[in-house]
C-alpha cells in the first residue's frame, strides 16, 4: 500500500529563506500553450528566479543549451505528451544535465519518456482539490502530509506501467474520489521530478515551498 511509505514532513522554511534559496536560478520554461504557464512563471519569479519562457514549437534544443539554464520546467498543457512539441525531446536531452520539473502534462511527459503509459483518468478533475499523500522527499520535502492540492487533468500516468527507474512520490489516498492515482514521480538516479497537480493554484497549499525545493537543487 502506498500509504505505508508516508514519512513525517519537516518544518518548512519561511518566505525569506525560500527566496534566498531560489534567487540564483535561471529557469527555461517550456510552455505547452497553457493558460496556467504564466502563473507558474509568476511564482518562480516571486521566489527570485529568472524565468525564460518559450512555446514548445518556438525553440530548439541547441537554443536552450545556448541560454545556459540552471533548471528546466515543462509546463501543463491541453494535449497529450505526443502533441507537446519539444517537451519529450527536452526531457531526453537534458536528463542528467539539468534539474527538470514537469507539471501536469510535463509530469505525464516524464512518465512517457521512461516507458510509462499515459491513460485516461477515471474522472476528469477540473479545479478540484485533493489531500494527497507523499514520501516527504524531493519537491515534497518539508511539506504538509497530507497536502491539499488542486487538480486540472483528464489523463494520468498509469502506476502499473512505471519502469523501475521511476519512483512514485505522491498519490491520492484511499478515501479520495479517485484513489490510488500517481500525483508525483521522480527518477531514482537523475534529477527529474513531476507533479500531476498545479502548485501555482491559489488552492494548493505550500506551492511556493514546493517550487523552491526544486529551485534550490543545483
User: How many separate helices?
Assistant: 6
Distance between the termini: 33 Å
What is the level-2 CATH architecture name? 3-Layer(aba) Sandwich
Look at the structure and name the CATH superfamily.
Class I glutamine amidotransferase (GATase) domain
The radius of gyration is 16 Å
User: How many distinct beta strands?
Assistant: 9
Please report which band the strand proportion falls in: under 5%, 5-15%, 15-25%, 25-35%, 35-45% or over 45%: 25-35%
Strand line-up across the major sheet: 2-1-3-4-9-8-7-5-6
Helix/strand order: HEHEHEHEHEEEEEH
Instruction: Please indicate the count of domains.
Output: 1
How confident overall, as mean pLDDT? 91
InterPro entries: Anth_synth/Amidotransfase, Class_I_gatase-like, GATASE, TrpG/PapA_dom
Keywords: Glutamine amidotransferase
Domain Glutamine amidotransferase: 28-216
Protein name: Anthranilate synthase, component II
Amino acid at each position: 500500500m502506498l500509504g505505508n511509505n508516508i514519512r513525517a514532513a519537516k518544518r518548512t522554511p519561511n518566505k525569506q529563506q525560500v527566496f534566498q534559496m531560489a534567487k540564483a536560478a535561471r529557469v527555461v520554461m517550456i510552455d505547452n500553450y497553457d493558460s496556467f504557464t504564466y502563473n507558474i512563471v509568476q511564482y518562480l519569479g516571486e521566489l527570485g528566479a529568472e524565468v525564460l519562457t518559450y512555446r514548445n514549437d518556438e525553440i530548439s534544443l541547441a537554443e536552450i543549451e545556448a541560454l545556459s539554464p540552471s533548471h528546466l520546467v515543462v509546463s501543463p498543457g491541453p494535449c497529450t505528451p505526443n502533441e507537446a512539441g519539444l517537451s519529450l525531446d527536452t526531457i531526453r536531452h537534458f536528463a542528467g544535465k539539468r534539474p527538470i520539473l514537469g507539471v501536469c502534462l510535463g509530469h505525464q511527459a516524464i512518465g512517457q519518456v521512461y516507458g510509462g503509459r499515459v491513460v485516461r483518468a477515471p474522472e476528469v478533475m477540473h479545479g478540484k482539490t485533493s489531500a494527497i499523500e507523499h514520501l516527504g522527499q524531493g519537491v515534497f520535502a518539508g511539506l504538509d502530509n497530507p497536502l491539499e492540492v488542486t487538480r486540472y487533468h483528464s489523463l494520468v500516468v498509469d502506476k502499473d506501467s512505471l519502469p523501475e527507474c521511476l519512483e512514485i512520490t505522491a498519490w491520492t489516498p484511499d478515501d479520495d474520489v479517485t484513489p490510488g492515482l500517481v500525483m508525483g514521480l521522480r527518477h531514482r538516479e537523475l534529477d527529474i521530478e513531476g507533479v500531476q497537480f498545479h502548485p501555482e493554484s491559489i488552492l494548493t497549499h505550500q506551492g511556493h515551498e514546493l517550487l523552491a525545493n526544486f529551485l534550490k537543487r543545483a
